[in-house]
Each structure stands twice: as C-alpha cells, then as structure tokens.
Specification:
Length: 490
C-alpha cells in the first residue's frame, strides 16, 4: 500500500538528491524561485519531451513554435492582460500585508472556504471580508477595500533614456502563438483544424506563492492553441480534455489522484467561453485538489483582439509609447475578413477561427509526477525510499555496477556503461556495498540496475534488477540493449 505523501518529504528528497534547490540559496534564497539540479533537470526535460511527443510529434495536425519572452507592448493591450490580468488584493490595516482576496480564510467562527487557483476577474465585487483572517498577523476583518493588482512584470528596453520603453515579461506563452498565426499559415501547409504548440517560461508577480514549485513567479508552461472552425469548437474541446487527461494517466499518475473541475461562469477568464481544469490531489492546501492544467475555449477572442491591436500602432506612437494612455482601435465591421482570418478553400469561405487551448504547467506537472511516484516501504527492517517514475520520465534510465572492484568486473561494467549511454541516460557507480547502490538508485527513480558479477565472467550474463519489485533476472550481454529498451518502453 502506497504511503500518504507529505510535501515536506518531497521537498527534503528533492534537496537531498539534487532534484530542486531554492534559487540563490547561498544568499538566503529568493522567494518563490527554484533551480533544478542534476536529477531535476533530467526529470523536467523528460516531462517536456513527453508533452512534445504527445502533442506535436505524434500528431499530423500540430506544429511547434518557440517565441521570445519579450513582446511588443501592444500585444498585452490587445490580449487584455494590460487592463485585466490582475488579482484582487486587500491590505491588512494592522500589518500592511497584502493578500489575494480569494485566498483569505474565514476566522474560527465561520465555515471553510474553497480556494481557487486561477486569477479572479477584476471588478468582481461583493466580497465580505469582515470574518477573514490576515495570514500574516491573524487580525480578523481588518482589511482595506479590494483593489486590482496587475501581475505582469515590467522592465525597460533600450539604453537611451529618450527611446527606452516599458516592456513586459510574458505572463503566458499563448500570445506568441496568436501573433504568429499568419506567419505559420503563410509558411507551412497547415489547414484548419490545426494547432500550434509551444513550451517556454512565463512570469507572474503572484501575490501569494506557495507550496514549493506549485505556484512561483517564474515558471514554465506547455501550451497548445488549436485553431478550428466556429461551430466545431465544442467537439474539439471534448477531444482535448480527454487527450490531456489520458496523457497524465499514460505517464503513470494514479487515476484516483486526477479529476476534472468545470469552471463556473463567474470564474471564467476574460477570454474564455468554457474552461475545465484537470486537478491533481496534491498533499497540501484546503481540500488537496489543485489545478494542474486548464483547457479553455478561447473562441475567436485573441485573433480578433490582435486585429484591433494592429490598427492601434499610430495611437501608441502618438501616446509617447505609454500603454496606459492608449485605447485599442475599434473592431472593423468586416473583421471576419481581416488579416488574421482564415480562408477555407474547400468551403470557399473566410472566418476567424475559434481556439481550444490546453495549457499545462511544466513545473506543476513535474511536482505531480514527483508526488505520485514517491513511496516508502519497509524492506527487511529498513525503510526504502523510492520514486516509482514511469520509465520515460525517469532522470536516469539504467545504472551499471561492478559487484566488486576486482577480477576484471570494473572493465566489463565500464564497457557496458559506455555502450548503453549512447542510447539512454545511464549512471556508473562502483562505490560502496551493492545494497546501498541499489537504494541510491531507488531514491533517484532509476527503473533498472545492471550488475556485473562473478557469473558474468563465466557466461557473459549480467543481473538486471527492477526498482519496483526488486526482482532480479539474468540477461545475456549481447541481448542487453534490446532487453532494456523493451523494459523502458523507449
Ligand atoms: N494561457 C492560459 C493560461 O495561462 P492559466 O490557468 O493561468 O492559463 C495555465 O495557466 C497553467 O500554467 C496552470 O494550470 C498551471 O499549471 C500553470 N501556472 C499558472 N500560473 C503558475 C504559477 N504561478 N506557477 C506555476 N505554474 C503556474
């Protein structure tokens, strides 16, 4: 029976084994920023690879893209992020700490509140803060009126004071895809329905960060914008919600830890007609279930908005490149045939496509894979810590050991290691007792260990030991690569 995992156990293991470190740790750390260590970067890369394989490589209707983090400021005016991408915050009158209004908990006299992980829409009123507790000092009902706090990070671009301009670090990767829609149409043979996928960093000046890498200010997203004909959007929404749910299951997440949560109308982001979250039962927070990925029906909102943005350039230059003084140009009456429209040459009609967007967090899913894989079990009176990663996600696929450092065993083991590392990420270890070497690999999540022993010298077979069952089988060295490939599903 799998043990109930605590987040503290995961954080300790991540630090101990070099998966994840606090950023700038030797300077006391930088809040909500994390660095991936030698095992962590392999795990995270494998998560990205698995996403890219499922969403791009295995499909005929999706192409990839890699856009810059800094984009033209008008992108964010058109997308709505400059005006609407904000959290409602209030300030404690006692200690001046700012908190997200929807994250505040009621005092002891009131019932529990549900915590949503997405950002609330600004302008949503009706918050009764009289029973809410300040998470910093414990004062009850001592809050200012809620106010909007924009989550985009700003920076200055350009060295000359006269022409330097304020630009934003992207808060989602999606907009890079929308503004390249025309480029992709003009340079490839894609036809609707088709998708454009991207993995990359996003930045949000989150008011509350929490739970290790769950919500940070710098994070990585894997987003697909799937363009389809209006009227087929609901069918594609269904398609993608199931595709994405099954992706997590195929990579080993236990079904009982995964569920859908439909967004209610008042929770929807400013661009969405419908949205469903895939939630994972994380070992923290109220009620445990937290958003892992969102699948949204963004309609034709973004492409229409960028058509308006393209016509706003002159107003922006006249404003002195000050976004706060710019009003977005009105939508043209013939917007359906605008520059970001699509011509269907079979049906001989032109329209602005609808978009279905599955948007996953790479760091958040890496945390879910870590939590789900973590296990502790008693073996002969000792506790064995292990990460039961699905093989394609495991940072190290195969560890190779000589049983002892004599009788030619190290040379044979080295040769095997040098051969195998051309195909998989391998690790060579000749230090310490064999049992300890196995335990270290269990804790790193390595699915298979290969040991060269006395029998190898006689019959050219090696021991292959399975991480989960600890069972050992003998395999001929000439068959070893194919055997391992098969077992690793690679
Ligand atoms: N383009 C749509 C979009 O960005 P979102 O629900 O705000 O939608 C999508 O973000 C996913 O990105 C989330 O489900 C989550 O996995 C991840 N994510 C969002 N904010 C995050 C943060 N501050 N830290 C880590 N991951 C985050």
């Amino acid at each position: 029976m799998a043990k109930i995992t605590k987040l503290d156990d995961i954080v300790a293991l991540c630090k101990r084994r070099g998966f994840i470190f606090q950023s700038s740790e030797i300077y006391g750390g930088l809040a909500s920023c994390y660095d991936y260590g030698p095992l962590g970067v392999e795990l995270k890369n494998n998560v990205k690879r698995a996403w890219w394989k499922a969403v791009v490589q295995m499909r005929d209707d999706v192409v990839g893209l890699d856009c810059s983090i800094l984009m033209h400021p008008l992108v964010w005016k058109a997308s709505g992020h400059a005006d609407k991408f904000a959290d409602l915050v209030c300030e404690c009158r006692k200690c001046n700490t700012r908190s997200r209004v929807d994250h505040l908990k009621d005092g002891p006299d009131a019932g529990p509140v549900a915590e949503h992980t997405s950002h609330v829409s600004v302008g949503a009123g009706g918050w009764d803060l009289s029973k809410k507790v300040c998470p910093a000092c414990g004062a009850v009902g001592q809050f200012t009126e809620p106010m909007a706090f924009n989550l985009m990070f700003q920076t200055q671009m350009g060295a000359n004071v006269e022409d330097a301009m304020t630009v934003f670090l992207r808060p989602e990767t999606a907009q890079g895809i929308f503004v390249n829609f025309r480029n992709v149409l003009d340079t490839t043979r894609v036809k609707i329905p088709f998708g454009i996928a991207q993995i990359g960093k996003s930045f949000r000046n989150e008011v509350t960060t929490k739970a290790f890498i769950f919500r940070t200010r710098e994070f990585e997203q894997a987003e697909l914008e799937f363009f389809c004909e209006p009227g087929t959007d609901e069918q594609w929404f269904e398609h993608w919600r199931h595709e994405r749910f099954n992706w997590y299951l195929r990579l080993g997440i236990r079904k009982e830890n995964l569920r859908f949560r439909e967004h209610s109308k008042d929770e929807l982001a400013h661009y969405a007609k419908a949205c469903v979250d895939i939630e994972y039962r994380f070992p923290f927070g109220s009620g445990d279930w937290q958003e892992l990925e969102g699948i949204a029906n963004r309609t034709d909102y973004d492409l229409r908005q960028h058509q308006r943005g393209m016509k706003t350039i002159n107003a922006w230059i006249e404003s002195g490149k000050d976004l706060s003084k710019v009003t977005l140009a009105p939508e043209a009456e013939d917007y359906q045939s605008g520059p970001l429209s699509y011509f269907d040459d079979q049906k001989r009609c032109r329209y602005i496509p609808y978009v279905i967007e599955p948007s996953a967090g790479i760091d958040r899913s890496t945390l879910a894979f870590l939590v789900d894989a973590y296990d502790e079990e008693e073996v002969r009176g000792e506790t064995r810590n292990l990460l039961r990663f699905h093989p394609p996600l495991a940072p190290i696929k195969v560890a190779v050991f000589p049983l002892v450092n004599r009788e030619g065993m190290p040379d044979i083991a080295r040769n095997i290691y040098d051969d195998l590392k051309r195909y998989f990420n391998c690790f060579y270890d000749d230090k310490g007792a064999i049992g300890r070497r196995y335990r270290r690999q269990d804790e790193a999540g390595t699915p298979l260990c290969v040991t060269v022993d006395g029998q190898t010298l006689q019959d050219q077979t090696v021991t292959v030991r399975d991480r989960d069952s600890m069972e050992q089988v003998r395999v001929s060295t000439s068959q070893l690569k194919d055997y391992l490939r098969d077992r690793l599903e690679l």
